[in-house]
């Protein structure tokens, strides 16, 4: 750190808050924003509330993740949850825990990303909190949205189609690429290829962006909710095998997937080919894709496919829900096997993956 980079300790809390407040634009529906004891906002129908945090050392590393992208992701992971519930995100509050030796620049860049993502998604930042922490950065975001018709995880019925949006596996591969020295700059451009060569640049960029700057399909999700096209939904945060298991359990159904139908990210396929890895395993177990997993009535898939064209987000039928125990079966050309959840779990129970 050079003397020209002031730290939070040098700036002080009052000045930090003033600096943040100055940058936050007035938002629609905001009766009282930053500066009062609490925010007061308008909601139209039912309020949807969700919260999620990014913790340094757990969700990101300072040397691997540009601050601007940490800001974008901190909001995006919440937008994904609101979208999966059939809501439209409206307002956000941000609670920051920051070490006092953190350069002020880092916080400025974090807010570059947060405010930019908020503007893109029609969300107003209405308040928050700042507190000091010994060394670890925590960015905690709560988003408030509204919905007329919430979509739950528990509505899947036997015969419904299992649908995923977008492609799978890139975010998990992106996380590994960071550990292999590949890097994005503040603007999401590739600045280091790590152990990989320049010939993989496009695939590296795709996977790193999926990890550091996920883009949940918000517009498509909104159209799906408006047209009542999904009977159940969950966002893919922990990995398809885990998130589908949750939907099956909560809906009281099983599911059968066709391995050949899974929309493996082409970037993942190309990188895994290069290192003789298993692209299918990435698509099944890799977390943080922040796409949607939907249960869709068979008779309405064509409408969904049409919407997918309108919003430029692929939707893929990957199998069907079936009667019986909440077990997921994966069918290959050569046979089938039970799909055991191997996605992310913050507090894994030893018995959960016995023998795995
Ligand atoms: Mg979720």
Kindly describe this structure.
This protein has helices spanning 8-11, 13-23, 67-84, 104-121, 170-179, 201-212, 218-226, 240-251, 266-274, 279-285, 301-311, and strands at 30-32, 40-41, 46-55, 88-98, 124-132, 138-147, 161-165, 182-184, 190-193, 232-235, 254-258, 292-296, 315-322, 328-332, 335-338. It is α+β, with helices and mostly antiparallel strands. It has 2 domains: 12-147, PurM-like, N-terminal domain (60s Ribosomal Protein L30, Chain: A), CATH 3.30.1330; 161-338, Phosphoribosyl-aminoimidazole Synthetase, Chain A, domain 2 (Alpha-Beta Complex). It has a 7-stranded mixed sheet. α4 (104-121) links the parallel β4 and β5. The termini are far apart. The protein binds magnesium ion. Magnesium ion binds at residues 81, 84, 235, 237. Residues 81, 84, 235, 237 line the site of magnesium ion.
Short description:
Helix content is 34%, strand content 25%. The chain has 356 residues and is of the alpha+beta class.
What's the structural blueprint in terms of helices and strands?
Elements: H1 8-11, H2 13-23, E1 30-32, E2 40-41, E3 46-55, H3 67-84, E4 88-98, H4 104-121, E5 124-132, E6 138-147, E7 161-165, H5 170-179, E8 182-184, E9 190-193, H6 201-212, H7 218-226, E10 232-235, H8 240-251, E11 254-258, H9 266-274, H10 279-285, E12 292-296, H11 301-311, E13 315-322, E14 328-332, E15 335-338
Parallel strand pairs: 4-5, 11-14
Antiparallel strand pairs: 1-2, 3-6, 4-6, 7-12, 7-13, 8-9, 10-12, 11-13, 14-15
Helix pairs in contact: 3-4, 5-6, 6-9, 7-11
The chain binds magnesium ion.
């Amino acid at each position: 750190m050079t003397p020209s980079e002031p730290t939070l300790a040098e700036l002080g809390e009052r000045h930090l808050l003033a600096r943040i407040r100055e940058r936050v634009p007035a938002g629609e529906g905001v009766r009282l924003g930053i500066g009062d004891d609490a925010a007061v906002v308008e909601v139209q129908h039912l309020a949807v509330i969700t919260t999620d945090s990014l913790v340094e050392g757990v969700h990101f590393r300072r040397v691997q993740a540009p601050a601007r992208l940490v800001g974008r992701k901190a909001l995006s992971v919440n937008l994904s949850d609101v979208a999966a519930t059939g809501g439209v995100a409206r307002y956000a509050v941000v609670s920051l825990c920051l070490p006092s030796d953190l350069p002020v620049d880092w916080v400025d860049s974090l807010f570059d990303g947060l405010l930019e993502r908020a503007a893109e998604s029609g969300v107003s930042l209405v308040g928050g909190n700042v507190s000091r922490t010994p060394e670890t950065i925590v960015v905690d975001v709560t988003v408030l949205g509204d919905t007329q018709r919430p979509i739950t995880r528990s509505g899947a019925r036997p015969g419904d189609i299992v649908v995923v949006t977008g492609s799978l596996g890139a975010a998990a591969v992106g996380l590994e690429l960071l550990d292999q020295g590949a890097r994005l700059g503040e603007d999401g451009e590739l600045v280091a290829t790590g152990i990989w060569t320049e010939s993989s640049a496009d695939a590296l960029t795709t996977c790193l962006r999926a990890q550091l700057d996920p883009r949940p399909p918000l517009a498509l999700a909104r159209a799906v909710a408006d047209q009542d096209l999904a009977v159940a939904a969950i966002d893919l945060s922990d990995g398809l095998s885990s998130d589908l298991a949750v939907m099956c359990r909560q809906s009281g159904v099983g599911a059968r997937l066709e391995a050949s139908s899974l929309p493996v990210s082409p970037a993942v396929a190309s990188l895994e080919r290069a290192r003789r890895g298993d692209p299918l395993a990435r698509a099944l177990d890799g977390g943080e894709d922040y796409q949607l997993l939907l249960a869709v009535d068979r008779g309405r898939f064509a409408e969904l496919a049409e919407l997918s064209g309108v919003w430029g987000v692929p939707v893929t039928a990957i199998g069907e829900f079936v009667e019986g125990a909440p077990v997921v079966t994966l069918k290959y050309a050569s046979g089938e096997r039970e799909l055991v959840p191997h996605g992310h779990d913050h507090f894994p129970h030893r018995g959960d993956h016995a023998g795995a």
